[in-house]
Amino acid sequence: MDAIRKKMQSLKGETDGLYATIQGFEDATKESNRLADQADCDIRDYGKKVHSFEIEFDETNDKLQKATESLEEKEKQFKEVESDVAALSRRIMLMEEESKKAEENLAGTVTKLATTSKRLTTF
User: Fold this and answer.
1) Rounded CA separation 105/116 (Å)
2) In degrees rounded to 5, what are phi and psi of residue 101?
3) Which pTM does this prediction carry?
4) Residues 116, 119, 123, CA angle at the centre, nearest 5°?
5) pLDDT of 66-103, one tens digit each?
């Protein structure tokens, strides 16, 4: 009977040890599941952040494209105005040359007129 009692106590000790091991595994499983749930929440949060960053990127990219188009249009207008200014500058230079020639011609004519007038008054 002592042998049975010792055997029963031995089995009870083994059973208690196994229950303790099972409880340890269940606790570890709960902790692992908690960490997995937290990781899932973190992944979901990061996914939301990434999605918002993608939306902001698309909006910024659209703004950049519009600004680039506007810049190209302004540069085109600038080049057109610049060519108009260059053409007008050339025209002004030509008009100044014509003005100088006309002044020289006028000065020559006035001199001739004065000379002729002087000769006529001496008669």
Assistant:
1) 16
2) -65, -40
3) 0.54
4) 140
5) 999 999 999 999 999 999 999 999 999 999 999 999 99
Output the CA angle 80-81-82, nearest 5 degrees: 90
Measure the CA–CA gap between 42 and 36, rounded to whole angstroms.
Answer: 10
What does the angle CA 55 – CA 61 – CA 63 come to, to the nearest 5 degrees?
105
Model confidence at 22, pLDDT cuts 50, 70, 90, reads very high
Structure tokens at 24: 């340890």
CA atoms within 13 A on the CB side of 111: 6
Structure tokens at 102: 């006309």
Phi, psi of 96 (to 5 degrees): -65, -40
Measuring CA to CA, which residue among 30, 29, 49, 55 is closest to residue 41? 49
Q: How far apart are the first and last CA of the chain?
A: 178
Q: Enter the DSSP assignment of 119.
A: H
